[in-house]
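Entry 14. Ran structure prediction on the chain below.
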Amino acid sequence: MFTPTRISPSISSPVLRTKSASPYKAIRSSPYVINCSDLSYPLHQVHFVSSPPPINTSPLTLGTASSSQAHAHGDKVTVYEHEGSLFQASTNVDLGFSLYKDGEMINPTDEQVRMIMNIFPSSYAFEIADPFLVIRVSKLPPKPWPVKVAGRALWLTTDADASPMNMGRPGHGQNIIIHEAIVRDETPTKSALIKVFEAFNDLGIPITNLQWVGWCLLAFPEADSFGNSRKLYPGKVNNVYIGYIFEKGQVDDKALRRMLPTGRAPDNSKYSSLRPGVVLASATINGQELVTSSGVCVQSPQGKKYITIASHGFPGGVEEVAYHPSTTAQHRQEVGKVVKVFWDTDISLLEPKLGLIYDRETFSTSEYAVKPFRNLKQTFAGPGYPGVRVGDAIHMNTPFNGHCEGSALKLTLRRIPADENSNEVRYLTGTFLYFGNGGDTLFDGCCGAPIWNNDFEVLGQFRFQNKSDDLCYASTFDSMKHLGYSIAEI
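Output, structure tokens:
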């Protein structure tokens, strides 16, 4: 049997893409003055200045920046440019303090609020809308904008009333009490949320989806509205607010964009070994390849190794062949064939072609060196295990966008009724991610790309982006982890 030759990870160098998919560059700094008047306000409420301050028109001065973060020192802020923009996309503006630590959203001091508002010369209002920091400005800066400020997700807007996320409508009914912990800033267990589903069912209010947002729960009832029974809908569960959203919580496959993005050439370079985040293509349909991104290598309990892929990128299902495309069709590389489909998750397994080398780490950049992926991370908490926390930093690297950084913002548990595929009710986990509301990131073709955290634990794989609120959905690997699959390499 052929055994591929592998270089030991301990002596190999990080692999950078042959073609850069991240054109942003840090080249200059700009002096800003404090535009905010003295403010007096309680924390956790809207913070206003009396009127929108004038836009700072100070000329930019040339400078250098050696990291992907902007650092504020007194009244000087290092900023970044990409075709006129002052910020680098997918970065956290570092002001020397953090408003997020180990799952806890930290309230800023008055001085920290002033420092944050000082980044945006036309800012006139600051709000805490956990897990977001909301900055309202009289004039939007050129894109792309920062994704995070001081470790918290940033939402920038000129609208005086808009909100970054639908937090639902409150219920006026009696509170639900379950005998498992549901506490602010702590990810609940999956069993606790299943008990919430059961409690609603006992009340005659079936719900299809629960979402944890770090400080509250969002529930998606099967009903179209409260109707005349708003007083029957519980206001809290274990003293945690519940918001009700009367719209479909299920994934709409029409949101899954399957075409090669225009305006930016993907990295279809030929590599000696493949890895997470390379282009994968299925059969050509009407002259057009369905293009997605490759996932991670996993190993079954029986020791067989596979590569995770996005199911919808391979509509032929089992036995369809996946290729690593090239500029010419005759030179594209066969990667393997589909052997298993997890229908509810949009995750499929690809059996690699004999002799294929596939690494357990993705591409590095000049500013972000990756390490081998450690494990598949379980979404919800367990004994001695905190789970994914709302606000955690997450990363993605695709052949279309390069390296992207964002935040995990919602953890979702969807109830799937018994059907012809299963005699039991199933619960499907997922994660909603935020990569900012002012970037030029393209998510076409990114489906299947792995999502990981700062500890190089893999949370899931990219599936689609909402058009309504800029959030992206990732299918988790929880069901595969439950079946005994683990991270591997070939």
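Helices lie at 110-118, 190-202, 478-482. Will compare against last week's run tomorrow.
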